[in-house]
Write a structure and sequence with these properties.
Distance between the termini: 35 Å
Strand order of the largest sheet: 3-2-4-1-5
Number of strands: 5
Strand content: 5-15%
Oligomer: single chain
Radius of gyration: 18 Å
Structural class: alpha+beta
Amino acid sequence: MTNTLHRYGTAESFVDDYIIFALPAKGGGQSGDPLPALRRFLELATEYNPVNIGDAMNGGAIRPTEHSKAIEHFGTRPTTPDFRKVIEGATKATTFSAVFARKEDAEAFVRRLVEEDLGLSINISTSIDNAMNCCKAAGLTRHSVGYSLGFEGIQDNAPNRHVLALSTMCGHGMISQSLAKKMIDFVKENRRTPDQVTAALSRFCSCGIFNPVRAKRIIEDARKKTF
């Protein structure tokens, strides 16, 4: 089970959302430090055009910085992902992740992981069809599958569906619905660009599974709506 299963949206909405995890085993006779293998996982991921990488202890490629005013989210704070900082800042074996927006990149990365045989447990979080295609491309048979039962009572055309899609991209609940709505309003009012608000939202995801490409698409779609 992974908290990324609770991302809100239809199966089609995950066309540009592939989260691939590496997890070290606990017990089972494991010997040695898995951290080098986990760092190698991230190094390999950077070769396949990820849109985010991260570890659950230290965060993703766009992180909070020390600034005194909230408005500086959109000014002096960096908005470009820093993949090297994530890799070099890994301090402890935990869950490591790489997020991809293109089917071809995700499938090529999974094939590479099979070749490297890092000795890590690998999970793929996306739609069932997307995950199955990744396994097929790598010549793998799916080991198991986990489903999220979804959000009961919320229709696909609900007024707040864009807010839910953004806030649930942080499985730990660190992106509030109020913040997501505010960012959408900023874009609708032409006060900030989709790129600016996407970077701001990314900072609040504490483990690096936020997908800025999907977020930007959601925000662009929300801007066209009148509710």
